[in-house]
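Q: Structure tokens for this one, please.
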Amino acid sequence: MTKKQRALEVIDRLKKEYPDAGCSLEYNEAWKLLVSVRLAAQCTDARVNVVVEKLYEKFPDVDALAEASAEEIEEIVRPCGLGKSKARDINACMKILKEQYGGNVPKDFDALLKLPGVGRKSANLIMGDVFGEPAIVTDTHCIRLCNRIGLVDGIKEPKKVEMELWKIIPPKEGSDFCHRLVYHGREVCTARTSPYCHKCCLHDICKKTGIKVNEKKSIEKTGTI
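A: Here is the predicted structure, written as tokens:
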């Protein structure tokens, strides 16, 4: 099975397993997703969803966040960790949206990358979820699972993983595929415990599972480890 064949099969199976998978950051406007994805660095999406409610009560729009001080923002977002740098980036980002884009989020990948605190992962998330454009979000779940499954080989750098996945993932599938990897990574192919391979819908085509099976057969055959 080639990597592309494996990728298509993985996409198909994850669609059936998680038909309604989507972004777990709650938002109803593009700029709010921009804020949330910055807060989500080294923080759970669940906590971010709680914190932003308080943030938007005090600063309900782009203009309000742009006019606020970084210290005021930090006071609210501190529970997400790295409060000082996150508050500074959010404040600076909203000022740019206000001054250069009329309060709107630019529909351009390179323009997004120029915003404070926005990297490739965040820019891809915005392009895919907000604008419906082809996107591959290489978060920790994506990197871990794609290496385990065998879609990439020992690559841990997010941009390199993204570039490899572009070769084998159909563009229209990229965004939803990455959301499903998050669900699967949280529920089955976990990081902090041993993955639950026995209940994984990918167990028979997963490279890591295949290695385990072959090792087991070898031990049974030779009686040695």
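A few notes: Residues 51 and 77 are 6 Å apart (CA to CA). DSSP finds twelve helices and no strands in the chain.
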